[in-house]
Amino acid sequence: MKNLLKIFCIAMVSFTFSANAQQTPETKIGFISDDLFIYFHAGPGTQYRILGSINAGEEVQVLSAVEDDYIQIQDAKNRKGWIDASYLSDKQGLRVVLAELNEELADKSKKISDLTNKLSDTSSELVSTKQQLNAVQKEKEQIADKFAEASSVLDEQDFEIKKTWFIYGASVLVIGLLLGLIMPKLIPKKSYSSSSWG
Questions:
Q1: What is the pLDDT of residues 145-189, one digit of tens each?
Q2: pTM value?
Q3: Under CATH, domain 19-92 is a member of which superfamily?
Q4: What does the CA dihedral 64, 65, 66, 67 come to, rounded to 10 degrees?
């Protein structure tokens, strides 16, 4: 008897799971329209007692087809009830869409703010880099001026050295010429008589 009871319990659990599994794929998602809130009832009509209310834009699960203009739903709190089918939509309400757009706008605004801060930092770095570049350019120009000045001085010194060596060389040449012209006149010539040969 106990074994039969266990088998019966297992069979019931299996049936429950299989029934839930079959209902899950058929479950549809709907959204409450943009009215402030609506009541949902214990059955398909206003003659059934009110179980509570559902806020506009709330996501619900559709559990049945339309019956007497009412449809059975299950809300986020797992409450089951019937609502007027005209208040159910397959699209999100404007309030939900507006809230999502508002969140997206806030996110985009934050990203823009972050990018603006990065741009400001980059601009500051760019200004600093330009200042450094200008300073290096000025130093380069100063070095170029000093190099030109040093080259000019070196050219002048080279010219002076060449001029000095030219003067020395010319002086030696003149002295050599003078000595070549004067020395023969200063040295007396020996006279040779004819008698000396005899």
A1: 888 888 888 888 888 888 888 888 888 888 888 777 777 777 766
A2: 0.35
A3: SH3 Domains (2.30.30.40)
A4: -70
